[in-house]
Amino acid sequence: MKKSSSKKINDKKESVEVIKKNASIEGAEKKSSAAPVPEKDVLQELIEKNIKWSQVIYNQNKKINRRLTMMVIGSYVRLALIMAPIIIGILYLPPLLAQMMEQYQSVLGGSASTAFDMKDFFDLWRNTR
Predict the structure, then answer these.
(1) 98 with 122: CB under 8 angstroms?
(2) Could you tell me the CA-to-CA distances from 11 to 6, 108, 113 in Å, in that order?
(3) For the stretch 32-68, what's the b/e string if a residue is b when 16 or more beta carbons lie within 10 angstroms of its beta carbon?
(4) For residues 108 and 114, what is the distance between their CA atoms, to the nearest angstrom?
(5) What is the pTM of this model?
(6) CA 47, 52, 58, 62: dihedral to nearest 10 degrees?
(7) Closest by alpha carbon to 57, among 110, 9, 11?
(8) Cβ-count burial of 102 within 10 angstroms (0-12 exposed, 13-18 middle, 19+ buried)?
């Protein structure tokens, strides 16, 4: 936790330094506008400034991409944690309920011909799927 917060602080400091440097370059351009400045120097400064900004943006985009990837993975894990018990219940619950109903029918003394037979119900249910 401390490493990531210090990394964020360092990234923010770097961003602030880049902004300050860019501001100083712009201020120097305004001051030196009275004297003729070769176009190559100005273009070189603009290219360097553009490269610095591109690097800052690239670093931010990398972080965002990592976080989005982790969010997608987390959502799939969450979905699996929710769906796994449901699927297991669908597979294993009908035979258990059938056994339970057979035991209750034998305890209550009901005959298989007159009582509602869960086994037939589950057979019908399986055939409809």
Answers:
(1) yes
(2) 9, 74, 78
(3) eeeeeeeeeeeeebeeeeeebeeeeeeeeeeeeeeee
(4) 12
(5) 0.45
(6) 160
(7) 11
(8) middle
Task: Please give the Cα distance from 39 to 15 (Å, whole number).
Answer: 27
> Which two tokens mark 95?
């035979």
Q: Which tens digit of pLDDT belongs to each residue from 74-122?
A: 999 999 999 999 999 988 888 888 888 888 878 777 655 545 566 677 7
22 neighbors 49 (Cβ within 8 angstroms): yes
The radius of gyration computed from the CA coordinates of the chain, to the nearest angstrom, equals 35
Domain boundaries, the chain: 2-92
C-beta separation of 125 from 94 below 8 A = yes
Token digits of residue 62: 């990398």
Q: Write the pLDDT tens digit of every residue in 29-45.
A: 555 555 555 788 899 99
Q: What is the pLDDT of residue 98?
A: 82
